[in-house]
Amino acid sequence: MSDFISDFWHLYVAGITLVSIIACAVLLYISGTTKAATHADNTTGHVWDGDLREMNNPLPKWWVYLFIITVVFALVYGALYPMFGKFQGALGWSSQGQHAAEVKKVEDAIAPIYAKYNGMKPEEIAADAQAMAIGERLFMNYCAQCHGSDARGAKSFPNLADGDWLGGSDHAYIKTTIAQGRTGVMPPMAAAVGGPEDVKDVAHYVLSLSGSPSDSVRASQGKAKFAACAACHGPEGKGMAAVGAPNLTDGVWLHGWGEEAIIRAVNNGFNNHMPPQAALLNEAQINVLASYVWGLSNKPASKQ
Fold first, then answer.
1. Where in the sequence is the domain holding 120, given as residue range(s)?
2. Less crowded by CB within 10 Å, the N or C end of the chain?
3. Residue 140 falls inside a structural domain
């Protein structure tokens, strides 16, 4: 792989590009100076369709000038902009630099809009109609792909519009999660619980915690084996926000409901990842977006 990032390829690309431009100029010169053998009537002797004769007329002047302009333009462009391998050009232009400049231009333009929300409390921002309109658009662009346009999530993607939170639910926690992302891990627990039948017993015990239909005999047998899970979910299965362990006694099932889903979770575990958004959103945008998400489950009175 190192062969493809060596300086040879930079020189190869630069050489091929420069030689191609020079070759075009040489071809133009040769075609304009070379005399073809012709007859007295300026024909070459080539005949098609019986009476269509090839003549040796010079290239039109406009065509020649256009060709020269094209060659000169290519050389000037290559001197000013990156075209010859790693050479950046006299202007130092780059697509990354242009993108950064355009992003800064947009951020400077929208900064006054976000500035008024910097000193406001989350509940005040969530009650501001303009702020929520901005937050909704940010959510649609950066969050709805996973959490849905209504923020109610889907299987393995949390519902942000209810009151069930795996971690914290305050504005600061939401801001941190948006900026830095979040990884939720449940290790496979089958070996700690026991064999396949033991896993099934635990599954029925977990179902019984939320009042879901379950086998009471298996549930009673699984209660003692649930001790392997209590380190995270707590002895009563009510979860621990500090480690992001869900409450198993409510009716919220992030990764699917029922015996099969629980058995799969115990056997395989989970490794969910929410990517950080700090590279895409600035601090002011994250503040408004976090207030929007906070407001989804707190529903403050709208302020016009």
1. 103-181+275-296
2. N
3. yes
Q: Over the chain, what HEC string results?
A: CHHHHCHHHHHHHHHHHHHHHHHHHHHHHHHHHCCCCCCCCCEEEEEECCCEEEECCCCCHHHHHHHHHHHHHHHHHHHHCCCCCCCCCCCCCCHHHHHHHHHHHHHHHHHHHHHCCCCCCHHHHHCEHHHHHHHHHHHHHHCHHHHCCCCCCECCECCCCCCCCCCCCCHHHHHHHHHHCEEEEECCCHHHHCCHHHHHHHHHHHHHHCCCCCCHHHHHHHHHHHHHCHHHHCCCCCCEHHHCECCCCCCCCCCCCCHHHHHHHHHHCEEEEECCCCCCCCHHHHHHHHHHHHHHCCCCCCEC
Q: CATH number, domain at 290?
A: 1.10.760.10
- pLDDT tens digit sequence for 171-210: 999 999 999 999 989 999 999 999 999 999 999 999 999 9
Mean pLDDT of the chain: 90
Lowest mean pLDDT, pick from 76-80, 115-119, 189-193:
115-119
Known binding-site positions for heme c: 143, 146-147, 186, 229, 232-233, 274
Same domain, 43 and 172: no
Question: How many domains, the chain?
Answer: 3
Annotated binding-site residues read: 143, 146-147, 186, 229, 232-233, 274
Is residue 301 scored above 60 in pLDDT? no
147 and 279 together in one domain:
yes
In a domain, 90, yes or no: no
